[in-house]
Structure to design on (759 residues):
């Protein structure tokens, strides 16, 4: 097979309308549908965050009861992880990986389709708890035993929530399997594993981690359901510790699962908008694999204060993470070095990612030291730390991906002017929301509290943080406005508006059903379009 | 005798400057590169660099990273060995019990118990500059015993007793000086205690007064 040459007209006419959308096994329709679903959950969980920030803007209880607050932070965290971050990372892979590797389809697409339905079903399960008499789950997103056991948390919303988590985790595993199988079996001629584009490599490690870590979550949650119905599973202190091990064996890797793909998007953006191919590709790939392997061995750092794990071991593995992380930063900066940099919106978000994520990274090394962690764990310091990794890292990377691939997926352009507004509002709002939390936590404010004492510096810091969250809400509205505007004006993007480097930009925007019509460009490296560009320049040079 | 706050501050004063330097370096390089190498019409003909590997530089850089990690771990392990040393048994004994959503402090040798109510949390009373040996347990769900001023926290897991030692150098009363930091259900927000640090003499007087039945 030298060229992907699938006949354009299939004998079976695809369904249209809602049935067509919900039943399409085209990876692009599936990827887009899953992406929109996950983004809707992002907005919903964002509204919960805003409600919490409204409550915390001033001391004492104003808007809600203590119980209502518990429901909010439980559903905020679990929606963000299970229904937004993981599915949207997988959606990006489902849509983009076949295009990047020159494939015509997603492997096991019907399994992927089932996964999308599972995400929707799981989400409904988790959120329908709000309609029950005792409300939604109120045990925190990691639902520690024995707090999450029936005598302590008898609400049926918690049972719905557990089922929802299991469905969403199953969906993640199915999607990771599809993407990984596609990469293994559907690569175009010439596309060896060491010519895989950087984003696709980040999807490989992300999927490997899903396949290793998420089964532990399903086990933890299924046993929790059994514990709640019949008891006898997680008993005594051993049961409490076992649950934590099972949970964090999933719970730490998941933050890398939802980080790597966006690191990949940032890498593609930095390479494209610097006019250079990604620097140090092979060490980068090795460091990614090392990063993934190492991050499977750090889960116990969530348990430093339990006196039940070998703190030194987990401190060692956690601190060692600075080595692969340092390599990623070296490669990013070296790619910009002596480049020809265009500060288009995707590049702005990519640079924002570099600056914000490093704050989450260095504070992560800080809490990787047990004596330091003893003080700041379960305080607002930790909340600040992981929002710098998850918002500063994953969400900034997500917007990099959205602005970068929007023209490819929709065939239209977004407004650069609104994009810049979106970027700067996000940068200011993000830092205003989360930076004060470092001081709050250091000063002794625990997480997951709806109230705090009046008349201290905490009032000012919390007010600042709440103001920042309002700014973040405005920034998201600007983005949605940009989307609406692009939808209406339909400025055609053309196949490759950015001068990008990978195969998805060698086909129409949006790509046709079979992805590529006619012969693919030759694949001689991880940046085949950059190869062609450099070759043309070479030929144009006077001898 | 381990002053946890002193140890914490010493360790943090190694970690934080490195952290700040790394963040500033990244910020500086990102801004500098974005400015220095931005596409200008005047440089239309200038081609971006084609160099895309530097294995020796990267190998050297990895060594630097590993050295930084080793330094941080060495200091961490040194401090942790002190913090985690088991209770000596020679200090003042305080047995802490956490239960939804209250703290209880017992001084087993003196037969004193400090209890609180929903409105009035109990007060942990300790002598200054003496080792205080704590045992910590929970009766229901997981709580966590946190005294921010001491930069120290430990989980209270039901069915498991953990022990640790703290020293309180400064006398005085701290309203809500101790908190539960592990989410433990409805009234987690308000699960606090006060901390009163007395001079050793005053502490002895307080103990005698409590034993003879006077209020705290």
């Amino acid at each position: 097979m030298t060229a992907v040459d699938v006949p354009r007209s299939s004998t079976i006419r695809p369904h249209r309308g809602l049935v067509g959308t919900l039943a399409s096994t085209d990876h692009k329709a599936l990827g887009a549908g899953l992406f929109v679903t996950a983004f809707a959950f992002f907005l919903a969980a964002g509204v919960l965050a805003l409600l919490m920030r409204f409550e915390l803007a001033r001391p004492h209880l104003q808007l809600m009861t203590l119980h209502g607050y518990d429901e909010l932070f439980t559903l905020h965290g679990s929606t963000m992880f299970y229904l937004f971050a993981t599915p949207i990372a997988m959606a990006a892979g489902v849509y983009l990986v076949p295009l990047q590797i020159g494939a015509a389809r997603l492997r096991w697409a019907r399994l992927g389709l089932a996964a999308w339905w599972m995400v929707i079903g799981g989400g409904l399960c988790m959120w329908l708890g709000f309609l029950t008499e005792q409300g939604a789950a109120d045990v925190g997103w990691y639902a520690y035993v024995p707090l999450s056991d029936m005598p302590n948390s008898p609400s049926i919303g918690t049972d719905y929530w557990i089922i929802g988590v299991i469905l969403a985790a199953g969906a993640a595993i199915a999607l990771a399997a599809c993407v990984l199988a596609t990469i293994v079996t559907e690569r175009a001629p010439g596309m060896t594993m060491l010519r895989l584009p950087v984003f696709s490599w980040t999807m490989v490690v992300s999927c490997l981690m899903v396949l290793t870590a998420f089964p532990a979550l399903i086990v933890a949650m299924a046993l929790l359901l059994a514990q709640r119905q019949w008891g006898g599973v997680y008993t005594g202190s051993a049961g409490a510790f076992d649950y934590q091990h099972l949970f964090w064996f999933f719970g730490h890797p998941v933050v890398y699962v939802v980080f790597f793909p966006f690191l990949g998007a940032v890498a593609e953006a930095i390479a494209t908008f610097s006019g250079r191919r990604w620097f140090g590709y092979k060490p980068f790939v090795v460091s990614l694999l090392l990063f993934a392997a190492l991050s499977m061995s750090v889960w116990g750092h969530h348990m430093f204060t339990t006196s039940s794990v070998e703190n030194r071991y987990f401190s060692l593995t956690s601190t060692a993470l600075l080595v692969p992380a340092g390599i990623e930063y070296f490669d990013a900066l070296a790619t910009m070095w002596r480049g020809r940099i265009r500060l288009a919106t995707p590049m702005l978000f990519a640079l924002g990612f570099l600056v914000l994520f490093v704050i989450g990274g260095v504070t992560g090394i800080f809490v990787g030291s047990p004596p330091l962690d003893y003080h700041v764990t379960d305080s607002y310091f930790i909340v600040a730390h992981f929002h710098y990794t998850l918002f500063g890292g994953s969400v900034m990377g997500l917007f990099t991906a959205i602005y970068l691939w929007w023209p490819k997926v929709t065939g239209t352009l977004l407004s650069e002017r609104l994009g810049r507004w979106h970027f700067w509002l996000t940068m200011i709002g993000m830092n205003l929301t989360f930076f004060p939390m470092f001081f709050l936590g250091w000063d002794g404010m625990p997480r997951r509290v709806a109230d705090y004492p009046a008349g201290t510096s905490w009032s000012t810091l919390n007010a600042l943080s709440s103001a920042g969250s309002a700014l973040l809400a405005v920034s998201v509205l600007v983005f949605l406005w940009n989307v609406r505007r692009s939808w209406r004006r339909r400025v055609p993007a053309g196949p490759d508006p950015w001068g990008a480097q990978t195969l998805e930009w060698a086909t129409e925007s949006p790509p046709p059903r079979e992805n590529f019509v006619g012969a693919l460009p030759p694949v001689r490296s991880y940046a085949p379009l950059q190869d062609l560009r450099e070759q043309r320049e070479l030929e144009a040079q006077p001898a | 005798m381990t002053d946890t706050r002193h140890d914490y501050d010493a360790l943090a004063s190694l970690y934080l400057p490195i952290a700040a330097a790394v963040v500033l370096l990244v910020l500086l390089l990102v801004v500098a590169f974005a400015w220095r190498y931005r596409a200008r019409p005047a440089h239309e003909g200038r081609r971006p660099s084609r160099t895309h590997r530097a294995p020796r530089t990267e190998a050297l850089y990895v060594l630097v990273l590993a050295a930084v990690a080793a330094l941080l771990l060495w200091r961490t392990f040194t401090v942790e060995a002190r913090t985690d040393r088991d209770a000596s048994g020679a200090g003042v004994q305080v047995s802490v019990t956490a239960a939804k959503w209250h703290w209880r402090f017992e001084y087993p040798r003196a037969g004193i118990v400090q209890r609180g109510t929903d409105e009035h949390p109990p007060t942990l009373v300790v002598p200054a500059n003496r080792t205080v040996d704590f045992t910590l347990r929970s009766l229901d769900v997981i709580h966590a015993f946190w005294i921010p001023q001491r930069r120290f926290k430990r989980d209270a897991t039901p069915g498991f007793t953990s022990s640790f030692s703290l020293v309180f150098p400064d006398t005085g009363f701290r309203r809500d000086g101790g908190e539960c930091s592990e989410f433990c259900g409805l009234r987690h927000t308000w699960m606090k205690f006060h901390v009163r640090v007395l001079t050793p003499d005053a502490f002895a007087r307080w103990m005698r007064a409590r034993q003879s039945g006077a209020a705290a």
In short: The first helix of chain A runs from residue 17 to 23. DSSP finds 18 helices and no strands in chain A.
